[in-house]
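Translate sequence into structure tokens.
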Amino acid sequence: MALETHISVCLSTGHLDEPTARELDALIQYTLPRAARDVPIIWQGQIVIERWQEYGWFVWVKSPGRSLMPPSLQACLALAEAAGGSWIQFDRDCPPISELAVYDW
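Result follows.
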């Protein structure tokens, strides 16, 4: 039996600016209605996201609408994609890396 596997890239939540982090929290707490997810002009309706405990989020690297996403999130997605990742696990306990900007919030 062949199992499908995916690579998860762990990045610090500090690689996202505070407004983007707050928006991710809001998207999990207040799910957009189906009609809003079909609107291609807002990134919030395109992203695939889930809560990671109380410490961050899982974000699908191939989430559509990337060009509309905030720059800090775009940079994280691009780096994870270049590394072959399918998902990003944003975790507050993951140490920051030098390849990405770090935001203090």
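Note: DSSP finds three helices and four strands in the chain.
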